[in-house]
Structure formats: structure tokens, C-alpha cells
Design goal:
Layout (H helix, E strand, L loop, with lengths): L14 E10 L5 H14 L4 E12 L6 E13 L5 E6 L2 E6 L5 H18 L2 H4 L2 E12 L31 E10 L2 E12 L7 H4 L15 E14 L3 H23 L2 H7 L1
Antiparallel strand pairs: 1-5, 1-6, 2-3, 3-4, 4-5, 6-9, 7-8, 8-9
Length: 271
């Protein structure tokens, strides 16, 4: 498969984390299949295993406050550097990385992870896929003499700071709409969210994130660009189909990022 979007390598990469989630019909006996799945991941570069019950937290849009907490079993497999990981539950597999190079490399690992879980649990013959979602988190860290508005398109900059008391303005802008992927309706959400707590990731991603370098400290204003694109329905459990949708969603995210989210001046600085 090939991308149908631009490729502009950025040496000052604003990207912090990329993840793809594939959600499928629940496998109640997933624990029975885990030994073989763990061995497959060990042989493909993920030797570090972490398993246990975790609290799955659902946040309001923008990550303001948790609204639901559900305990579930989760198995995690990390590479030696602990910058790329695979998360497996009874109804999903997630690949995430903080050492992103380009999508083609990420896609190769994604297809291997999805196929390992679907085949290892026999779900490639007996299950269905319900969701494929791709998410990119970037951080805007202004250089000297600039603020975040230099990097964002006008429609995402919010109201002027003078409307508020000095130092009391935190931006939260969200756009959500329908897209299309492989003839299926999809959804893309673009969020611009600021915090002054030094959080380089949205709250819902922090607990399970691979190792990463924080982009700011407490008391520093930080601007997150959170782009989430997904398709939902009932689909055949086919890893090739998953990859085709992932490539389409990736292309749409990239073109949206360059043409409608960040400025051309930002791209030139990051090069």
C-alpha cells in the first residue's frame, strides 16, 4: 500500500505520540490465547510484557474530567527502548509509539500486531471488527519571540488574550465532522487544547503511553494538537482491510494538518 498524501520530513518534529486502535467483537477467553500471542510479540521485537487489571477511564471531549471508569484485563508488550508498545484487551489491540519515523514504518508494525492478535485468538475466522481509529498528538512549543498563534491557522487561535485576566486564558477549540474511508462513513475530530500543568499528552493517554520526553514543565503553557480519525461499523476481521482504512485516514489527517491546522510558516520552522 502507498500513501496518497504529501511527505514533508520535519527535523524539529512536533509529534509526541501516534496510535492506532482496532476494536473487535469481545473475546471472553482472551487470556487463554495470550501465551501464544505473547510469544509472537517477543519474537517480533516486543520482549517486555506488562499485564494486569487497569481502570479504563472515559473522558469528556478535551479530557476535562473523567466520566466513567471500568476495570478490565490488559496485556502490554513493549520494545527494548520502551518507546513503542502494543496493548491487548478482550476487545481491542492498540499500537502506539513515541518514536515515530514515517507512516510506512508504523503501518508495517500495525499490520503485524493486528494479524498476531486476530490470528492468535482465532478471531480472524470467528469475529468481526467494529472500529479502526488513528490518532496523532502534536505539541506546539513556540520559539523565542513567538506565541502559539504563529503556528495555528486563524480559525484555531481563539479570542485575544486581553479578554481575560493576564495568564488566565487557556484555549480549547474542537472541530468534529463526518468523513469517508473505503466507502464507509468516518469521523474526524481536531482538538486544540492548552494546559499549564506541563502535560504533553491528553489525560486519557498518559497512563498507558510509552516512554516519552515531556515538552514543558509545570507552570508552562503548552498547546496540544489532537487529531483523531476513525471509522465504525461491522467489518470482516481482515488485516489488509484494516491497513487500507488506516492509510486513507492517515492521508486525510496529514493533508488537514498541513492545509487547515498549522501555518506554512510553522512547517518551514519545523523543517
Amino acid at each position: 500500500m502507498h500513501r496518497n498524501c504529501r511527505y514533508e520530513p520535519l527535523s524539529a518534529q512536533p509529534l509526541v505520540l501516534v496510535l492506532c486502535q482496532v476494536r473487535f467483537s469481545r473475546v471472553r477467553q482472551m487470556a487463554r490465547y495470550i501465551p501464544a500471542i505473547q510469544d509472537a510479540f517477543r519474537r517480533t521485537g516486543f520482549p517486555i510484557e506488562r499485564a494486569g487489571k487497569v481502570q479504563q477511564v472515559t473522558f469528556e471531549p478535551g479530557g476535562a474530567a473523567p466520566v466513567q471508569m471500568v476495570e478490565q484485563q490488559r496485556w502490554e508488550y513493549r520494545d527494548r527502548e520502551e518507546t513503542t508498545s502494543v496493548l491487548v484487551t478482550e476487545d481491542s489491540v492498540i499500537l502506539q509509539t513515541t518514536a515515530y519515523t514515517r507512516f510506512e514504518d508504523f503501518a508495517e508494525q500495525l499490520q503485524s500486531a493486528v494479524q498476531t492478535v486476530l490470528a492468535g485468538s482465532e478471531h480472524d475466522g470467528f469475529g468481526v471488527i467494529h472500529r479502526v481509529g488513528l490518532r496523532y498528538i502534536d505539541v506546539v512549543a513556540p520559539s523565542a519571540g513567538k506565541d502559539f498563534r504563529f503556528y495555528l491557522r486563524p480559525g484555531l487561535r481563539g479570542v485575544p488574550d486581553e479578554v481575560f485576566q493576564p495568564g488566565r486564558h487557556l484555549l480549547h477549540v474542537e472541530s468534529r465532522g463526518q468523513t469517508e474511508a473505503g466507502g464507509h462513513p468516518g469521523t474526524m475530530i481536531v482538538r486544540i487544547v492548552q494546559n499549564d500543568q506541563g502535560l504533553s499528552l491528553p489525560p486519557d493517554l498518559m497512563a498507558a503511553a510509552p516512554r516519552y520526553l515531556p515538552r514543558a514543565g509545570p507552570g508552562e503553557l503548552i498547546t496540544l494538537i489532537d487529531m483523531d480519525h476513525y471509522v465504525e461499523g461491522t467489518f470482516d476481521p481482515n488485516s489488509e482491510w484494516v491497513m487500507a482504512r488506516a492509510y486513507e485516514m492517515h492521508d486525510h489527517i496529514v493533508e488537514t494538518f498541513h492545509d487547515h491546522v498549522v501555518t506554512r510558516e510553522a512547517i518551514e520552522e519545523w523543517k
